[in-house]
Amino acid sequence: MNPYAFLAIAILSEVFGSSMLKVSNGFKRLFPSIGVVIGMGLAFYCLSISLITIPLGTAYAIWSGIGTGLTALVGVIVYKESFNVKKFLGLVLIIGGVVVLKLSSGGTS
């Protein structure tokens, strides 16, 4: 399987785990807490598989950058958190940085 596919699964799993963390109420609610453990466990497993081929700095930057953007979107869409121009510009800068890192990595070696 493509290492970037594992990285994508890691990102989505981490976003899911983080979203469940919001509703777990400090790990007081059982099912969201189980979602946190499963999401984060799968995220770290898939990240570790992707690191076999993708350089650490590149993989982590992509994981954290895209994860940050997606988590912010979940916050706005699902949890009705505020969103303004400054937050939008910050996310654009993060995602732009991820793109630059990906382009400068020279592939998966």
UniProtKB/TrEMBL annotation:
Annotated TM spans: 6-23, 30-54, 60-79, 88-105
Membrane topology: Multi-pass membrane protein
Name used for this protein in its record: Multidrug efflux SMR transporter
Claim: Transmembrane helix is one of the keywords in the record: yes
Species in which this protein is naturally found: Peribacillus simplex
Gene3D superfamilies tied to this protein: 1.10.3730.20
Any one annotated GO CC term: plasma membrane
Subcellular locations according to the entry: Cell membrane
Listed GO MF terms: transmembrane transporter activity
Superkingdom, natural source: Bacteria
Keywords assigned by UniProt, alphabetized: Cell membrane, Membrane, Transmembrane, Transmembrane helix, Transport
InterPro entries in UniProt: EmrE-like, Small_drug/metabolite_transptr, Small_multidrug_res
Family per similarity comment: Belongs to the drug/metabolite transporter (DMT) superfamily. Small multidrug resistance (SMR) (TC 2.A.7.1) family.
